[in-house]
Amino acid sequence: xxxxxRAFGHVNGEPLxxxxxxxxxxxxxxxxxxxxxCMAFGPLILGHRHPDVAAAVHEAIDNGWSYGTAERWSLExxxxxxxxxxxxxxxxxxxxxxxxxMAAIRLAxxxxxxxxxxxFNGCYHGHADSVLIEAGSGMTGQAASAGIPxxxxxxxxxxxxxxxxxxxxxxxxxxxxxxxxxxxxxxANHGLLPQTATFLEELARLCRExxxxxIFDEVISGFRTGFGGCAELFGIExxxxxxxxxxxxxxxxxxxxxxxxxxxxxxxxxxVYQAGxxxxxxxxxxxxxxxxxxxxDCKIYQQLEALGSILETALQDIGHVALVRHGSVFWVCLTSxxxxxxxxxxxxxxxxxxxKACFDSLLxxxxxxxxxxxxxxxxxxxxxxxDVRAYAGAxxxxx
Length: 399
Ligand code: PMP
Fold this sequence. Notes:
Elements: E1 18-22, E2 25-28, E3 33-36, H1 51-62, H2 72-84, E4 90-94, H3 97-112, E5 116-120, H4 150-153, E6 156-159, H5 164-174, E7 178-183, H6 197-210, E8 213-217, H7 229-234, E9 240-243, E10 254-258, H8 260-263, H9 282-297, H10 300-316, E11 322-326, E12 329-333, H11 349-364, E13 367-368, E14 377-378, H12 385-397
Helix pairs in contact: 1-9, 2-9, 5-6, 10-12
The structure holds 4'-deoxy-4'-aminopyridoxal-5'-phosphate.
């Protein structure tokens, strides 16, 4: 396997081998079809093999697939985004969310002349050294992987989600050392832990007060909670934003963006180095351009919200699960207690212990979700009411 969660380690199983995909379905090597609620971990908001995206990719291939020089598709994609999100004045394309985060952090360090970073326990920002740190709520985090130099982890402070007092304490003692605070404004990598507007506003305020740059990592929430992601939803303009997943329509793309004055620090105009052989690859750019064009012009978000509320109603009477949903992102917690989940500590142990049995039961009903208790699920424009009801039915019969 080329990425750990795919390996089915959390569910002690063998991964499905997929031969093809269409709409809301995955088809495995035995010809078995599954309703897919993992959707490649988020990029496929239009579903598998959307015909317009497929046509754009085919057309791109017919014209050559890597030029290593300027082309117009990345400019069109950047312009489309900047028109809708005027605070994202300049955009740089990279190849993954991890790369986008790495570069945004370097830029923040250069712009502030500070070294430290603040992240939140339970938020994932890709696998760069400085963010692969999450343990507990100590002042500096412990690396979540072998091979991360202590000198790097010492520079990452870890705060708790939904804990404004602790956050204020950290800023009071270290505010003038922190280059950037990075957060998933809709934390979706340890279950789904929606934050209150008050908490995010307080974070933005503390950042402003201490000259710390605010980075919204919208790799999942960008173009998902609405075209403008959480920045638009909460009316908070981050200094920098990182995107991935949907921005490439299912091809490898990441991006970071912000005010021109900041972005101009990046080479070749500025002194912050960041480069990529395959960055702004024409195939990926056209997949992204087509996907974002559809999201801007069609009523996809309303359609997804309607489908999400059907799911919500269908799960309402199932006593052994609690649904957390934001538009087309959802997470089902295996617990009979309905509550607000706002930080990792609020998730009961029953969820992790029960997950394997639930996953197996869904799979036996030809429903595929990510093989980990901590991954969220996604609805796409290709899912139907019948798909959602099949999911609810399978959950009902489990447990
Ligand atoms: N940030 C967030 C919020 C993510 O969810 C992810 C990936 N799931 C990343 C960054 C890293 O993106 P990638 O896997 O494309 O490197």
